[in-house]
Specification:
The complex is a heterodimer. Chain A is α/β, with parallel strands linked by helices. Chain A is built from 15 helices and 14 strands. Chain A has two domains: 211 residues, Aldehyde Dehydrogenase, Chain A, domain 1 (3-Layer(aba) Sandwich), CATH 3.40.605; 182 residues, Aldehyde Dehydrogenase, Chain A, domain 2 (3-Layer(aba) Sandwich). Helix content of chain A is 44%, strand content 16%. In chain A, strands 9-10-11-8-7-12-13 form a seven-stranded mixed sheet, sandwiched between helices. In chain A, strands 4-3-2-5-6 form a five-stranded parallel sheet, with helices on both faces. Chain A has a two-stranded antiparallel sheet with strand order 1-14. Chain A starts with 10 loop residues before the first helix and ends in a 6-residue tail after the last strand. Chain B has a domain of 175 residues: Rossmann fold (3-Layer(aba) Sandwich). In chain B, helix 5 crosses helix 6. Chain B is globular, with a radius of gyration of 21 Å. In chain B, 44% of the residues are buried. The chains are: A alpha/beta, B alpha/beta. At the A-B interface, helix 13 of A face helix 3, strand 1, strand 14 and helix 10 of B.
């Protein structure tokens, strides 16, 4: 007699299947809705999230810091800055600009994917907020795998959407399971469209499970930098520059892909600028620590900061002209480097200032990072033609964005994240070569 | 010239004292001897390695100010990538070992003007901690079949690990012993023939190599469906991690697989903790204290401290901290090195440190942000 083995899916896999079943039901109503109506609801939700007094922001304040490890002050400041221009109208304009010419009566229609699975990563809420709602803009229901370090943002966003529009709220399902749970992952990644954020390792693991017939949109880990014009500044100008850079560095504890890991001081006698910018930036970072305390830090990260500080001290002892400005603990560190070499950056508010004599050195300097370069903040470039020339150079080297210092953590709603349009990659189109009503 | 001669003479006296300690059969802890020698060595290195002197003085530490060896400032291991940390004239260099590193990153370099302390230390540690039943510490050395899963010293002249294995082969190896990584590849057939002969003869075998090489070996055995039972008394010594490698394997899984395929029980598998920048190495305690907790032990001319990265102060015994090693075998470079590793003291039943353990990365720890680490990016090759 042969032995019969019945294998039940594990609890998480079963939750994924159940969520998919609910989304399948919700999809039928979603595809019948007008894109304008959906956008209007999402705009309302975003406007609620922008309001610091809304109940969603209050709950976010209460629940997010403990789960994510960021301080409450950093979370609030980061969200305030980033959402300031993420209005409902901005969302509407951004999506409509991309989907122009796809309405009924146009020769190209949006053909929504039956489901979009979104793998979230990390604990910075901004990319999660956007990644969850964009598929809805193209009428695809969304199955979300929340990140281990931020189960809060996806849940609150789903609840806030459901409150404004219960029918649309049923088009988002949030699930949670370990990345090593192969059964759940396989079921989760079976959607027609898959969006994943994460490290190269995570992207590779997800990619290995995607069939050629599926749409796969990946956002890998990146880094950002700042370029500061060398030159003499008044105390006031120097202070403003340092303040702007400290915002870019301190928000999200420098852990995001929009956080600068290095600042290049470009122009004649850059060392002189570093000599005054270093302490000014140190003062600003010290004030940021009082205002926006750094969040939790692992022993490994603290050890890495200590190690990099000690190495800098040793290089200084070896004769290099190195400036070190640091907090008593590991809260913030500014290293004034003597050369252009890329060195490990342990993050958590650790910045290196490099001297860059000439603009034509920039391509070579950026060469090791071009594949991973996200955004570049420019500071102190008052001359339009100089600013344009650098922006062109950065664009040619693959920078995804060029902005002012202090704005790295606040990309506009219509920014092409990793060079990709917002919603076009999340849908497909039906071309019409017949006349229809 | 006179100053140089005096410096050379002072070094010779120091080296002779430390060598005498290393060559004394049987290890005995001697705190007073360690403290006195460490302070003499610091004074010498302070005087003859200017970058180190400036680094130490920046900390307010000079030979005159020290109250104990614990106050000797440790240089970060990464500094060996940036500076030539030697306390002797460059022309006197007889050997330079380089760290393997990853692509796009500079290797660390250890410059030596003599190999005598380096070799005396490594052999003493191997004999006492990995071959206590073979070494001359208990009389005449009894040779052992050694198969080395690493390139030979001729193939990898910059590798301190290959040099160490070469010394071990010369000291304890039988004529059938040898290296099994040739031209960068595992020479499986000769290795398999050698271990099969050992299995048939019943003579113990020692398999030594990098952890990654053992993973590769296991893959070959699995692919060929082969396994064997190494004779009683056999042992495995593995070292190094998986950084920059395509595959990682938790150490417990590696040991279980080695036991299953090679018949060497976990209690006979030893991890070595060492680094190019150090003259001495540390070994798991399983051969000298099979019933005690697995922990790292080192020779009496070394000390290990653990620092709180926030304050730079020593942590309470048993708490985790940055590993700092004081190694008197490093007479030509710097004796106190702050590693990039985390570890903690292992305590005995009375709460006293009796060894230490290295803490690996937290398994499954998920990144909180989406920033790529610069070193990871550089290892990836860039453009």
């Amino acid at each position: 007699m042969s032995k019969l083995t019945i294998q039940w899916p594990d609890a998480h896999a079963e939750q994924v299947e159940t969520a998919k079943g609910r989304l399948d039901v919700a999809r039928r109503r979603l595809v019948a809705r007008s894109p304008e109506g959906i956008l209007s609801v999402l705009a309302t939700v975003f406007d609620q999230w922008r309001d610091p007094q809304s109940k969603w922001r209050q709950r976010f304040r209460e629940e997010f810091p403990q789960a994510s490890g960021f301080s409450r002050e950093v979370a609030e400041a980061g969200l305030d800055l980033a959402l300031a221009e993420w209005t409902g109208d901005a969302l509407r304009r951004a999506v409509e600009a991309e989907l122009q010419g796809t309405a009924l009566g146009s020769p190209r229609w949006v053909s929504p994917f039956s489901m979009t699975s979104v793998v979230l990563a990390g604990a910075i809420p901004m990319p999660s907020l956007l990644a969850m709602v964009l598929p809805l803009c193209v009428r695809s229901p969304v199955l979300v795998k929340s990140a281990a370090r931020d189960p809060i943002t996806p849940r609150l966003l789903a609840e806030s959407l459901a409150e404004v529009d219960p029918e649309l709220g049923r088009c988002i399902e949030v699930v949670s399971f370990s990345g090593s749970d192969a059964e759940s992952l396989t079921r989760f990644l079976a959607a027609e469209c898959v969006v994943a954020s994460g490290s190269d390792e995570t992207i590779a693991a997800v990619s290995a499970r995607i069939r050629p017939s599926q749409r796969f949109v990946a956002y890998g880990h990146k880094l950002s930098i700042a370029i500061v014009r060398a030159g003499t500044r008044s105390d006031e100008e120097l202070g403003a520059l340092a303040e702007a850079l400290s915002v870019d560095i301190a928000l999200w504890d420098q852990l995001g892909c929009l956080s600068p890991v290095a600042a290049f001081v470009m122009g004649e006698n850059p060392e002189k600028t570093i000599d005054v910018l270093g302490p000014a930036l140190a003062d600003s970072l010290a004030r940021r620590q009082s205002e926006w305390p750094r969040g939790e830090i692992s022993l490994e990260a603290a050890a890495a900061i200590r190690g990099q500080r000690e190495e800098a001290r040793m290089r200084a002892a070896g004769g290099s002209s190195i400036g070190i400005w640091e907090s008593e603990g590991t809260e913030w560190t500014v290293i004034g480097e003597a050369d252009l070499e890329w060195r490990p950056n342990p993050l958590h508010r650790f910045i290196r200032l490099h001297p860059l004599e000439r603009e034509d050195q920039l391509p070579e300097v950026l060469s090791p990072v071009v594949r991973n370069l996200s955004s570049v903040a420019l500071a102190g470039f008052e001359n339009d033609s100089e600013r344009t020339a650098i922006a062109q150079l950065l664009s040619q080297r693959g920078a995804g964005r060029v902005c002012r210092a202090g704005r790295l953590q606040a990309p506009p709603m219509d920014w092409y994240h990793d060079g990709l349009p917002l919603v076009l990659p999340l849908t497909r189109f039906t071309g019409l070569e017949i006349s229809v009503d | 010239m006179k100053a140089e001669a005096e410096a050379g003479e002072a070094r010779r006296v120091l080296d002779a004292d430390i060598l005498a300690w290393m060559r004394t059969p049987g290890w005995t802890e001697d705190e007073a001897r360690f403290d006195a020698t460490a302070r003499r060595l610091f004074a010498h290195q302070f005087r003859h390695c200017p970058p180190y002197a400036r680094f130490a003085a920046g900390r307010g530490r000079t030979p005159e100010s020290l109250l104990s060896w614990r106050e000797i400032p440790a240089v970060p291991a990464g500094a060996f990538k940036e500076l030539a940390l030697r306390g002797f004239p460059e022309d006197n260099t007889v050997k330079t070992f380089r760290t393997s590193g990853t692509s796009g990153q500079k290797p660390g370099e250890l410059h030596l003007d003599t190999l005598s302390l380096y070799e005396a230390s490594l052999l003493s540690s191997l004999e006492n901690l990995l071959f206590p039943d073979h070494g001359p510490t208990r009389g005449e050395a009894r040779p052992c079949l050694l198969r080395i899963l690493a390139p030979s010293a001729r193939e990898a002249p910059d590798s301190s690990l290959s040099h160490m294995f070469q010394c071990l082969l010369e000291r304890l190896g039988t004529p059938e012993s040898g290296f099994d990584i040739v031209d960068g590849e595992l020479a499986f057939e000769p290795w398999w023939a050698a271990v099969q002969r050992a299995e048939q003869s019943g003579a113990p075998i020692a398999l030594c190599g990098t952890a990654f090489a053992f993973v590769h070996l296991l893959e070959q055995l699995e692919a060929r469906g082969l396994s064997l039972r190494c004779p009683e008394g056999s042992r495995i010594m593995e070292t190094g991690g998986f950084k920059g490698r395509s595959r990682e394997m938790p150490r417990t899984d590696l040991y279980a697989a080695l036991t299953a395929r090679l018949g060497v029980p976990p209690g006979r598998i030893v991890n070595q903790y060492g680094m190019t920048e150090l003259g001495s190495q540390f070994y798991d305690s399983v051969w000298v204290d099979p019933s005690g907790p697995r922990r790292k032990l080192g020779p009496p001319w070394t000390r290990v401290r653990f620092l709180d990265p926030e304050s730079g102060e020593e942590v309470v015994d048993g708490e985790a901290g940055v590993v700092v090693i004081h190694d008197l075998a490093n007479t030509g470079s710097i004796a106190a090195i702050e590693t990039a590793d985390l570890g903690r003291a292992v305590l005995d039943e009375k709460g006293r440190p009796c060894g230490f353990e290295i803490l690996g990365r937290r398994a499954g720890a998920e990144a909180r942000g989406c920033s790529i680490a610069v070193d990871e990016m550089l290892a990836g090759g860039g453009a």
